[in-house]
Amino acid sequence: MGAPAAWPFRNLRPHELFVRMSLHRTQRFEDVFRSLLAEFLPAWLRSERRQQSEGARTTRPAAAVNPATADIQREGGCLCGAVRFRVSGAPLRVGLCHCQDCRRASGSFFTPFGVWPIAAYTSSGKMKTFAHRSFCPNCGGRIVWLRNDEAEIMLGSLDIAPSDLIPEYELWTSRRENWLAALPWADQFDGDRPV
Ligand SMILES: [Zn+2]
Ligand SMILES: [Zn+2]
Fold first, then answer.
1. Which ligand ends up closest to the CA of 83?
2. Nearest of 116, 188, 195, 187 to residue 149 by alpha carbon
3. Range of the structural domain that residue 145 is part of
4. Is 52 in the same domain as 89?
5. CA 67 to centroid of ligand 2, rounded, Å
6. Total tally of structural domains belonging to the chain
7. Which ligand does the CA of 176 lie closest to?
8. Are residues 53 and 98 in the same domain?
9. Ligand 1: centre distance to CA 152 (Å)
10. For residue 115, how far is its CA from the centre of ligand 2 (angstroms)?
11. Does residue 80 sit in the same domain as residue 52?
């Protein structure tokens, strides 16, 4: 697999190009591109991730981290507005989960989530927590799963839609609804993410 330096669309990341083409319904090219992406993107994402983490360990992290996402502040909140939060910088990873707990907690068929370092997360307003999942006790809006080192954000609670965050992996894929297709570029796990 070639290095991402060979990628010809220099101003667009490949998954952004894919989403844009979907919007324009260039269907036949999209089908061809979809299969190319499935082959190309996982390695590209791994490579970008590696560059970012290597950058974070150098003495000049700002220059090494992807400038498109390094300084982004993303804000969100619950339905009634009592809880607000902010995450800074690029997420560590972005995924979709089709597991039973995610379905029951959300009332939806799957949950999209992004994981940030705990230091990148701040919130205001009182939340309640059940089975690690924190939500607004007034409106029930789901916000976050806090761990010691990470904040896992429910991406649907972000203010801006569509977001620029694209899942890199899917969990519990055997529970995915039959009318939902696997994301062609995303790693597929029939269970939790291997550690
Ligand atoms: Zn609320
Ligand atoms: Zn889940």
1. 1
2. 116
3. 73-189
4. no
5. 31
6. 2
7. 2
8. no
9. 18
10. 13
11. no
Task: Measure 143 CA to ligand 1 centroid, in angstroms.
Answer: 10
Question: Which ligand is the nearest neighbour of the Cα of 140?
Answer: 1
Indicate the residue type of 24. H
Give the β-pairing of 111-117 and 150-154: antiparallel
Can you tell me the distance from the alpha carbon of 185 to that of 27, in angstroms, rounded to the nearest whole number?
17
Would you give the DSSP letter of residue 158?
A: B
Q: Are residues 95 and 169 in the same domain?
A: yes
Q: Closest-lying ligand to the alpha carbon of 95? A: 2
Predicted confidence (pLDDT) per residue in 36-69, tens digit: 777 777 777 766 666 655 544 433 333 334 545 5
Q: Is residue 194 part of a domain?
A: no
Note the pLDDT tens digit of each residue in 124-157.
Answer: 999 999 999 999 999 999 999 999 999 999 999 9
Residue carrying structure tokens 């080192």:
149
pTM, whole model, 2 decimals? 0.67
Structure tokens at 75: 């804000």
Ligand nearest to the CA of 134: 1
The neighbourhood of ligand 1, an ion, using CB within 5 A, equals 78, 80, 82, 136, 138-139, 141
